[in-house]
Amino acid sequence: MRLTFREIKDKITKMVPSGITYEINLEAASIAIITTDPARFQEDGLTGRISKEIKRRVEIRPDPSLLMSIEEATEAIRDIIPSAAMVQNVWFDPAISEVIIECRDPGEGVGKRGAHLKKLRDEIGWSVRIERAAPLASKTARDIHRFRLENAEERKQILRRFGTNIYRPKRPGQEWVRLTALGSYREVGRTMHLVTTNESRVLVDCGAKPGRESEWMPYFDAPEVLPPEKLDAVVITHAHIDHIGMLPVLYKYNYRGPVYCTPPTRDLMTMLQMDFIKVAQAEGRTPPYALEDIQEMMKHVVDVEWGQITDISPDIKMTLHNAGHILGSSSVHMHIGEESNHHNIVFSGDIKYEKSWLYEAAHVRFPRVETLVMESTYGGANSFQPSRLEATQELHDLLKRSLARGGKVFFPVFAVGRSQEVMIAIDQLFKSGECEPVTVWVDGMITEATAIHASHPNYLNAELRKAVLKDDGSNPFSSKWFRQVENRKHREGVLRDPGSCIVLATSGMMTGGPIVEYLKHWAPEPLNTLCFVGYQAEGTLGRKLQAGSASVPLSDSGVTTMVEMNCDMVIIDGFSGHSDRRQLMDYVSQINPKPRLVICHHGDERICIEFSKAIRETFRVRCTAPRNLETLRLS
User: Fold this and answer.
1) φ, ψ at 134 (rounded to 5°)
2) CATH architecture group of domain 388-444+485-575
């Protein structure tokens, strides 16, 4: 039975011993207990017992009267944390009265039996977290920390408002659940789903469509979405542009609700949305939103770790699980309604049901699943990919062959995911001694995306996490052959250099970005090689090249020129972050418990229909591939 906030407060009041001064507030769905005596709530497991009783996440926050000023607290940290800990950054978040201290050696920072940590907490009053500093510094992560500090008071009020909405009184009437297709149905791009119940309206993803400006937007004009301020929440599965590219548009048009996502998704989507504006302006197009819309969005982001059960509306509990696609990518499990009349939906997100060089395989075990909404990108009957090991060997052979003849190899890559996979494969080749190393230029947002990977090691697979955290040269992202292209002038120097090299450049579908410059200059030369390692959507330049175009028109300062494709062109499929037909079928086979209904989206029209039919015939479950703007009643 759903508890109101008043009922929650009454239960807590009965459990807290007399003599403790405290007040109860909301941080979105979490219950915040603000107290002058935080230690008393740790005694005898009181916090855990409260959380168990009210079935909600409970956060103990120090009363503001206990907190040193940020300047005094910073000085105390310098005095108490020994130099051997090598403190790199100190981040204060007054919205939740917490300070994060990033150290090269967090063990030294914590001290024996937590001595330094305890002394620091007692002296400065703030809640303290000591974490290992990332080996690569992320400008995006630093900017987000600063932004949250500058907007702490407003964020505190925003979180309280989210909580007030979640714990509002129950509406009368019959319970029901519907799903409306608002983008990515029988197409790839502009992913957006709307879950509607008698209580709530929640969007899952809010993406852009690459390649076709007339179809950039998901269906914001559908009456179910209007007005945006009536939406309860947005959940983001992962940070690729086709899933987050249009999220700031909601804030441009007065949505002021929460965005739930993992911390790495938060960082990556901010970086990519900023780049989206920059690329649009560079190409003479008007971006659909501005910097201030991204900043407004960032005030409303609520961080959610994998496995953390979170109330996002009065009748929907959500849990995020690893999807194996890119850093922080998630499958979304929604538990809707009361126990006596409930429905469970899993949105797979984009999935990789195979352990990769970066991530563990997608999660397949859920408490309950009545409806599965899953991607179908490579769900076609003949869509089979080689394994990661086979793809790596194919890449190694290509590089050895191309570099031996004095050519250049250039890769159109997504800044997130494929770039890092290819970097690991190249690093492996050069460290093996099988190939003389050359400079590997990374152009676009790749270096910053890689730094964000290093900032969130817990979202990497165990082997890579260990390599990233160890400071012994085993971190593949820190190898000496990887160098950043700093600016346009620097890029011009790389383009003119006659020697062999490798270039990884965005955008991944060649719809813009620096990769187009490399194509323009290097495609006419037979010694060079253009290598695709990621999906190319319909209507993109990448798809046209894969279809065999002998020449392509490229615009330069308003003048269109034809570029002859004399270079080699190679497609290596095994690096995709998407599962192929075999893995997708395995995913459906292994998901536990078995869904009653499967809904296919995120694939070309023919593939969605074909894949839906295969699931229906193989697993004897209801399966459908709706069109955009269709609505299905689920319960």
Assistant:
1) -70, 140
2) 3-Layer(aba) Sandwich (3.40)
CATH number of 67-133: 3.30.300.20
Contacts 24+ apart (CB under 8 A), 304-309: 304/260, 304/261, 304/262, 305/262, 305/263, 306/262, 306/330, 306/459, 308/57, 309/57
- How many residues in total does the chain contain? 635
Q: Please list the residue range(s) of the chain that carry CATH number 3.40.50.10890.
A: 388-444+485-575
Chain-centre distance of CA 422, in angstroms?
19
Helix (H) or strand (E) holding 131: strand 127-132
Question: What residues have CB less than 8 Å from 627, skipping those under 6 apart?
Answer: 181, 185, 186
Token match 């917490």: residue? 98
pLDDT in tens, 70-118: 999 999 999 999 999 999 999 999 999 999 999 999 999 999 999 999 9
For the chain, give every residue range classified as CATH 3.30.300.230. 5-64
How distant, in Å, are the alpha carbons of 232, 250, 255, 617 from that of 227? 11, 10, 8, 40
Helices (H), strands (E): how many in the chain?
20, 28
Neighbours of 170 (CB within 10 A): 13
In the three-class reduction of DSSP (H, G, I as helix; E, B as strand; rest coil), residue 48 is classed as helix
Question: Token pair of 206, please?
Answer: 């809010």
pTM beyond 0.90, yes or no: yes
Distance CA 472, CA 147 (A): 33
Tell me how many degrees the CA angle 630-321-48 measures, rounded to the nearest 5.
Answer: 120
Question: For strand 193-197 and strand 502-505, is the pairing parallel, antiparallel, or unpaired?
Answer: unpaired
Spatial contact of 442 and 515, defined as CB atoms under 8 Å apart = no
Closest CA to 316 of 365, 264, 257: 257
Placement of tokens 């500058």 in the chain: 150
Separation in Å, CA 277 to CA 192, 234, 245, 273: 20, 21, 10, 7
Mean pLDDT estimate for the chain: 93
Q: What is the largest CA-CA distance in the chain?
A: 82
Q: Which CATH architecture has domain 5-64?
A: 2-Layer Sandwich (3.30)
> Residue 491 is encoded by which pair of tokens?
């890029």
**Phi/psi-derived region of residue 515, left when phi > 0, alpha when psi is between -120 and 50, beta in every other case:** alpha
CB atoms inside a 10 Å sphere around CB 180: 23
Tell me how far apart the alpha carbons of residues 122 and 448 are, in angstroms, rounded to a whole number.
37
- Residue position matching structure tokens 């620091």: 120
Measuring CA to CA, how many Å separate 577 from each of 235, 286, 537?
Answer: 20, 30, 14
pLDDT digits (tens, 9 = 90+) for 296-345: 999 999 999 999 999 999 999 999 999 999 999 999 999 999 766 789 99
Instruction: Identify the H or E element spanning 616.
Output: helix 605-619
The three state secondary structure string of 350-379 is CCCCCCCCCCCCCCCECCCCCEEEEECCCC
d(CA 91, CA 591): 40
| Cα separation values, 574 from 51, 173, 384, 416, 533, Å | 45, 50, 9, 16, 7
**Which residue is it, tokens 């979105």?**
28
State the fold for domain 150-381+578-633.
Answer: Metallo-beta-lactamase; Chain A (3.60.15)
Question: What residues form DSSP beta bridges with 60?
Answer: 33
The confidence band for 480, taking pLDDT boundaries of 50, 70 and 90, is: very high
Q: What is the pLDDT of residues 520-578, one digit of tens each?
A: 999 999 999 999 998 887 788 889 898 888 888 887 666 788 889 999 999 998 888 89
User: Could you give the residue range(s) of every CATH 3.60.15.10 domain in the chain?
Assistant: 150-381+578-633
Main-chain dihedrals φ then ψ at residue 391, nearest 5 degrees? -65, -40
Q: Which residues contact 524 (CB under 8 A, 6 or more apart)?
A: 563, 564, 565, 566, 567
